[in-house]
């Protein structure tokens, strides 16, 4: 997967790319991450990357020429590196809310150019002409699009074949099949008098599988009933839920 990032703070991404799952994916070349900083395209003495909003008011916007130059360069490089036209994404609190389905779509969408906004955001005409999709990571406002971009990249990277080892496979994770994950236990067998459920010690793989599915269904029902709406349960799941 090829991802180009347009950001005024590319160093922030070191936290993502130099360790953990995404770090390994970059090292194994399952993901190629490249960066474009609008500041590199600034030509004035102060290398400015912000500009005042028409109509006045507090706050600045990202300067149009430097931002567009960075987006165009990233788009061109994506085509050169992959032979495909990238999807250009702007992280914005006003975008479609990111969920696992959205992440799955983005992970298989081909190359991405991810634009991290700063200040009060970007000129609406840039959104209209240069951005294909706007995505939000939730109904709250952060100071910049770098953390949202990292959230998107991390979530998408986990779904790329070969990125996760078998032991941390994404297949069993919450939301993958529309349900929350089951509870997990490790050693010791007893913590403060609380025992690991017997079935997990039984070695009976069919019983363990049934127990896990039942826990997933029960948790989803209790904590996130919205996930079950419009999701028909199969016969086994209905039976388990009613047991
Ligand atoms: N004035 C904008 C608004 O109210 O919609 C908020 C601008 S915010 C301070 C600066 C940048 O942070 C945005 O351009 C966007 O890239 C990013 N950002 C902030 N919150 C976000 C969220 N919930 N999801 C995705 N990006 C976000």
From TrEMBL:
Belongs to the RNA methyltransferase TrmD family. The keyword tRNA processing applies. S-adenosyl-L-methionine binds at residues 117, 137-142. This is tRNA (guanine-N(1)-)-methyltransferase. Pfam families: tRNA_m1G_MT (PF01746). One of its GO terms (cellular component) is cytosol. Homodimer. It comes from the Bacteria. It comes from Halovibrio variabilis. InterPro entries: Alpha/beta_knot_MTases, tRNA_m1G_MeTrfase_C_sf, tRNA_m1G_MeTrfase_TrmD, tRNA_m1G_MTases_N, tRNA_MeTrfase_TRMD/TRM10.
């Amino acid at each position: 997967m090829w991802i180009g990032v347009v950001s005024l703070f590319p160093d922030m991404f070191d936290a993502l790319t130099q360790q953990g799952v995404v770090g390994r994916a970059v090292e194994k070349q399952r993901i190629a991450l490249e960066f474009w900083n609008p500041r590199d395209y600034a030509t004035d003495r102060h290398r400015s990357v912000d500009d005042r909003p028409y109509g006045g008011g507090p706050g600045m916007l990202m300067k149009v020429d430097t931002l567009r130059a960075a987006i165009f360069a990233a788009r061109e490089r994506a085509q050169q590196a992959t032979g495909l036209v990238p999807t250009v994404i702007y992280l914005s609190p006003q975008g479609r809310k990111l969920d696992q389905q959205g992440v799955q779509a983005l992970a298989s969408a081909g190359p991405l150019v991810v634009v991290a906004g700063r200040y009060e955001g970007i000129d609406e005409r840039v959104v209209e002409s240069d951005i294909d999709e706007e995505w939000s990571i939730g109904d709250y406002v952060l100071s910049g699009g770098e953390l949202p971009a990292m959230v998107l990249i991390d979530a998408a990277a986990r779904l790329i074949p070969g990125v996760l080892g078998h032991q941390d496979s994404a297949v069993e994770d919450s939301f993958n099949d529309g349900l929350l994950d089951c509870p997990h236990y490790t050693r010791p067998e007893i913590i403060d008098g609380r025992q690991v459920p017997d079935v997990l010690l039984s070695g009976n793989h069919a019983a363990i599988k049934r127990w896990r599915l039942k826990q997933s269904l029960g948790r989803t029902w209790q904590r996130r009933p919205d996930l079950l709406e419009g999701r028909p349960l199969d016969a086994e799941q209905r039976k388990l839920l009613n047991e």
